[in-house]
Amino acid sequence: MAVFKCEKCGATKEGRCKPKKCPECAETGTMQKKEDKQSSGCGCACKK
Ligand SMILES: [Zn+2]
């Protein structure tokens, strides 16, 4: 599961595919994949 973040309003959304538009501001093309290794745990890429 990847996390995508809107560059415009900062809203985040989890999903397997890149959202075409932001669920918050409805802007298209602003959702960018966010690397969340640091925020999701120990930071060693074990996903726990
Ligand atoms: Zn947005």
Bound molecules: zinc ion
Global morphology: elongated
Assembly state of the chains shown: single chain
Rg of Cα set: 12 Å
What's the arrangement of strands in the largest beta sheet? Answer: 2-1-3
H/E topology pattern: EEE
| Number of helices in the DSSP assignment | 0
SS-based structural class? Answer: mainly beta
- Largest beta-sheet characterization: 3 strands, antiparallel
Number of strands: 3
Strand content: 25-35%
> Averaging pLDDT over every residue, what do you get?
85
Task: Describe this protein's structure.
The chain is mainly β. The chain has no helices and 3 strands. It has strands at residues 2-6, 12-15, 31-34. β1 (2-6) and β2 (12-15) form a beta hairpin. The structure holds zinc ion. The site of zinc ion (ZN) has 9 residues, from loops.
Chart the SSEs and their pairings.
Layout: E1 2-6, E2 12-15, E3 31-34
Antiparallel strand pairs: 1-2, 1-3
Bound molecules: zinc ion.
